Amino acid sequence: MSATDRALAAPPRTMRLPEALLAVLGAAALVLVAFLAPWLKFVLTVALAKGIAVLGILLLLRAGQVSFGHSMFLAVGAYTVAFLAPAVPEALLLLPLGALLAGILGLVIGLFVVRYRDIFFGMLNLALSMVLYSLLEKLYALTKGTDGIRVSGLTFAGITPDRETQEWVMFGLALVLAIGFGLLVRAYLASPMGRALAGIKTRETRLEFMGVSARRVLLFAYVMSAVMGGVGGTLVAMTTRHVTPQLAYWTSSGELVFIAILGGAGSALGPFLGATAFELVRVYAAAAVADAWQMILGGVLLAVILFAPGGLWGMLTSRLKGRGA
Amino acid sequence: MSAAVHGGPQDRGANRPRQATPLLSARGLRLAFGGVKAADGIDLDVMPGEFLAIIGPNGAGKTTFINMSTGYLKPQDGTITYDGQPIIGLSPRAIVRRGIGRSFQLPQLFTEHTVLENAALAIAAHAGIWSPFTPLLRRGYHDQAMALLDRFGLGPVAQSRADALNEGARKLADIAMAVALQPRLVLMDEPTSGVAAAEKMGIVETLVRVLRDTGVTAVFVEHDMDVVARFADRVAVWSQGRIAALGPPQQVLNDPAVLRDVIGIEASPPSGAGH
């Protein structure tokens, strides 16, 4: 029996689930919930916005890296809206501007942090995010410190819709962007660069001996994740209408990592599953036990880590596979 | 040991194949880790098209030579030229792009990828991976990767995850990834270590067939003297960071000093030596 014959005994790759179908069903479910419970539109919009930012965390997780400071890009997107809205109230301009500025900051910071791995990568991101937090908090004349900045007077394609319409517009915008970035990330992860990114996690040495710069591969993913953080931040600012330095605080970054683990890194749908579950648990747990809702969230995360290491996405797919078998 | 030196730096010309210009040429390489001399004046020419085996006890500096030739380690003294150009100080990436591939004692496969993806990624790396939104397994890369794996007899396991392979298949896949980069020279660190004895010869035969077909020059570190006797054009014997002997296998592997000091005093010449 030759080496190759023996290796034939290896289990074949499992079939891919109809991810696209699940995405369509998920989007339809969100729209339905927004119709049936209008007060949840706000919560779902914020969940989608955070989901886009968490997609960025997912990219870094694919490379085996965890950023504990990624909400700094969310804050950059949000403060872009807060600072520029008085001069440029057009939401459709503020969105790409927030993404662009976050991307530029991502490139500058990325050039430095992609030289490091693991705990050093995570802690450097955290340290830099806390620098931004301190600036946002201390430069009161510019940022109004912890009071934050109110966002008002936004227009959408030149129109100022009423409150109800605006909620729908924001929800729709977040949903369309979530689908767009989900597709983009999916295509990227299947591309040579995306597969090389996953290679950083398992065999970075081999990448170098294939003539590929692992740092450049990681930098591209880092900038992409910063852009998605920026987009998430602009959406959060436009939805909540109030921007504070808390967005850049380390606990906000921890929340993004929390959502990524909760949703699972196995699919571009994971971050949205995680973000929706996170926001809904937070809302209902806070209403039910105002003083202990964080304990409930902690319990949920513990349960996921212990019983579903693939996150909600992993749990969902194993259920579906079990049913299909 | 000096009596055992054949074709070493002093009389390299006598054993040099007919081609005049070496593909890889090392002169006076020195590198010490603390008090341990991993390279203590290495002079070696690798001629185009040849299969050069490096043998010697553990700790003799065999892997160090491969690491220095591929940019992973920088010698404290000496020069290495590839195709007439100095390569010391270049990064592994730059050296790979010049045409030197390598495989590893512990295969460096992307363990979460399939074997097909591993091969396709290496092919894409050679072509340029900077296309962020085209699928890796698009037609061209898929077909090229399958053709490469078929040549190595790995076609049937193309869809298996790399960490599900046995050691022999992992070794072949590791070398296939080096060959995917279309190198002119491949440096292989113990391509058969950890492989079951019954499978070893089959794997080496596959390997040599592919490399000969491709016209790749090969340097390989090997502990199995039967493999060396059968497949090497020349053998370099490493001992304490120096080349103790260099020449055709039938000559080197029958040298009493090599047998005593390098292979071990009890060892008898390999069954295939001289053939």
UniProtKB/TrEMBL annotation, chain B:
Keywords: ATP-binding, Nucleotide-binding, Transport
Domain of life: Bacteria
One GO term describing the cellular component: plasma membrane
Domain ABC transporter: 24-265
Record has Transport as a keyword: yes
InterPro entries: AAA+_ATPase, ABC_AA/LPS_Transport, ABC_transporter-like_ATP-bd, P-loop_NTPase
GO molecular function term, any single one: ATP hydrolysis activity
Keyword ATP-binding: yes
PROSITE patterns referenced in this protein's UniProt entry, alphabetically: ABC_TRANSPORTER_2 (PS50893)
CDD domains, A to Z: ABC_Mj1267_LivG_branched
A Pfam family per the record: ABC_tran
UniProt cross-references to PANTHER family, sorted A to Z: CONSERVED COMPONENT OF ABC TRANSPORTER FOR NATURAL AMINO ACIDS, CONSERVED COMPONENT OF ABC TRANSPORTER FOR NATURAL AMINO ACIDS-RELATED
Protein name, entry field: ABC transporter ATP-binding protein
Source organism of the structure: Dankookia rubra
